[in-house]
């Protein structure tokens, strides 16, 4: 992320700038407009960082461990911990984004593919162990959602 100037803005001016910014984002009515705006506003690194933070929140909400998230998204445990603390402390923005993402059927296939990948790279579990049961339940859920997508859509 870029640095903020050490010279402080007048608080009224800063509040007005933020207001204009949020109002502009709210006025963007389609994903393509939002994408175009954010791509021109943010560097590639900033875009990746924001996308990874959202992915961390979603994976945490699905019960993935720090280690699996770290291995998959190539993020530090400190970043995962920061997002996790914000989720636990009631960061409504993250919670709302996670709920919306889980509702959207179009995102489900992508998250299912990510879950399938995570299952495939995890160490095999001993039959009957808690880990085996968890992996089995996740796998059953993936197959069920895939079947529903194929037969409904």
TrEMBL record:
It holds the Pfam family Trp_repressor. One of its GO terms (molecular function) is sequence-specific DNA binding. InterPro entries: Trp_repress, Trp_repressor/repl_initiator, TrpR-like_sf, YecD_YerC. This is TrpR like protein, YerC/YecD. The lineage of its organism: Bacteria, Candidatus Gottesmaniibacteriota.
